[in-house]
Amino acid sequence: MKKLILLVVALIASPLAAQNQDLSTPAPEGGEVETVFEDEETGGLTGSTTDESDWQDLTIAIPGFATDRDVPTAASNDGTAGLGKDIARVITANLRNNGLFQPIGPDQLPQPGFPQISSPAWGTWAGRGNEMLVHGYVQGRADGRLVVGCYLYDVALQDELIREGWVVPAADWRRAAHKCSDLIYSRLTGESPFFDSRIAYIAETGPKEKRVKRLAIMDSDGANHRFLTLGSATALTPRYSPDYKKLLYLSYVDGNPRIYVYDIGTGRQQLVAETGNPTLAPRWSPDGRSILYSMAVGGNTDIYRVPATGGQSVRLTNTPGIDIGGSYSPDGSKIVFESDRSGSQQCYVMNADGTGQRRISFHGGRCATPEWSPRGDQIAFTRIAGDFNIAVMEPSGRNLRILTRGWQDEAPTWAPNGRIIQFFRTERNSGRTALHQVDLTGRNERKLRTPVDASDPAWGPILP
Prior knowledge:
Elements: E1 7-9, H1 52-57, E2 59-61, H2 79-98, E3 102-104, H3 122-127, E4 132-140, E5 146-154, E6 159-168, H4 173-189, E7 197-205, E8 212-219, E9 226-227, E10 234-240, E11 246-253, E12 256-263, E13 269-273, E14 279-284, E15 290-297, E16 300-307, E17 314-315, E18 323-328, E19 334-339, E20 346-351, E21 358-359, E22 366-372, E23 379-385, E24 387-393, E25 401-402, E26 409-414, E27 420-426, E28 433-439, E29 445-448, E30 453-462
Parallel strand pairs: 2-3, 2-4
Antiparallel strand pairs: 1-6, 4-5, 5-6, 7-8, 7-30, 8-9, 10-11, 11-12, 12-13, 14-15, 15-16, 16-17, 18-19, 19-20, 20-21, 22-23, 23-24, 24-25, 26-27, 27-28, 28-29
Helix pairs in contact: 2-4
Signal peptide: 1-18
Keywords: Cell cycle, Cell division, Periplasm, Signal
Subcellular location: Periplasm
């Protein structure tokens, strides 16, 4: 993957006075997001707006982003004017799919002119009953890159809440849309964002008895899809490294399991472990230095830790039965895993060195594939009680909440902000698999489109 250039630039503080005004500021070269303009108010809205039920009633108008002059761009056949509407559509879809707001997109709204971006026509938006307004602009640069600006306004107060801008290569225009979505989400909720992130998963094709499973990645909304492996070897259970540069996954060639780290930038793979025994569920430590995995030896399956660069493994569990699927707490101090040592598949927590093992699931049914939330306050897991469903509980095991009611929903993975859970669902009759997302209320669920069947999702952190 090429190194993305996404640079935050300062937006002018004065209103836009003319359509030929240049809003861009020369940005320093570099590969990371660099904020050079930041509002003092960065928290969420105060008062009743911070209640989730009020967020769901909050209407946000998102008209097409304006342009000072419509110029050709590699990002759109319709020039910067057409691209402005595409950006607004992506933002609208992001906020709608999140389930917290009621966004209204550019196809249902009047198109603002370029001078109105920093000087909105308040009467127009108040008359439509909109509470929040997103304005933005797109400019084409001589070097082929794009300048994208994003403003958020409170219509009732006729006040600007926040603004930010980015310079992006034309091919990466969707990242600017995701960054704008993150800006809006964070300003209104006070929570960490998640739209500018990527998802890895296993792409499945072919008949059931000869299934081809390839490693694939895509944006959080399913765009910019890419296959990473050819399918000659079965790939399973991918996970992003904490720095987003690598993918950890399990590969089977002729029944021989190997744990690989795939460098996304170079395409090179590093062999971490070739155990010669059945191996399952490799997972990163939060600092990226270690990898957990499960291995079966002599009828016992235990959890091991190995350096991410390879080397000697350390066994962390040593009880009769099957221990699988370790997931670290965000601070790296504890590990949640599944075990059948009590006679049925249940979830346990232990210290990072393997001490202090204790069962936390006592809800009836079985507990599998536990995954610790990035916030540290919840553990998502597959609850098996007849059907397979996605559920969450506190690390203590208290306050079980079942979020889905599918026939076979499994393998939860958290969004970077710990608010959305992705999983895969198997259809009862066809056996086809697909990725789905659900928020922590359980009320907002959607299917994520992929070009082929999909399983084993893994949500990465926010892109740098």
